[in-house]
Prior knowledge:
By secondary structure, the chain is α/β, with parallel strands linked by helices. It contains ten helices and twelve strands. The strands form two sheets. A seven-stranded mixed β-sheet has the order 8-7-6-9-10-12-11. A five-stranded mixed β-sheet has the order 2-1-3-4-5, with helices on one face. It is globular. 35% of the residues are buried.
Amino acid sequence: MKRARVAILSGVGELIPQNLALAEELGLPMASKFDAMDRHFDFYLHYDEKGLSLHSNLGQALGAVRVNFDNTALNRRSKDSLSNQNLIKAVGLKQKQKQKQKQKLSVLDAMTGLGSDAFLLACAGCRVTMLERNEIVFSLLRDGLLRGSKGLPETRAAVAEMMLLKGDFLEKNDELGNFDVLYIDPMFPIKRNTARSKKPMYLLQQLLGEAQEETDLLSLALSKARDRVVVKRAKRSPNYNNRKPDINFKGTSSRYDVYLVR
């Protein structure tokens, strides 16, 4: 897949300097207006009164996405029997709570994406380090965390337990230290018939392209984890790196494969 062509929309009034600064930081061209008929750019980044958003200009993925930790659906999920959700079970948080261990579980989200899983882990009581290698997605996350730190009380509390770093896990692992849990969410293809309901992830996939499986990633992750590595997969996907997990937790469309540190 060819690299996506991205521009920064200049905006109006007091937001122009923010957009100009972002264009300079990312080394992206400026555009004065969004034109869905102009296919010169595939995506536009743009600060408005609600924060930073990414707009798609691709026919199959029209729309926009921003990182919003005050999102109603995300906050509802963070309160809906959170401890019984497969993600929380997979990282071993319920087991830690049963053992009445007071120290917070440290989690490295090695492929953060739009940050929703990191947010849920923080809501559940984990201390989460987020690692994101794509500079555009990193910018969206950074803006979402800044707004989240001024959002609803429960959002502010969760965001306080989240730290964002830029980089690729395979290149940055020596700088990161060790964590109780490493969480890996390689982006798996989203079917066209579900793309509308999962528009943010579908749009992100259009920006980044389909992830290639890194052959050394799982072994390296296991060397950096004190307790376990959790890999998110599509429900019927083959095992990551063809390695059988010790435990898995299956949902309707995805599963969490758990690899315990021996």
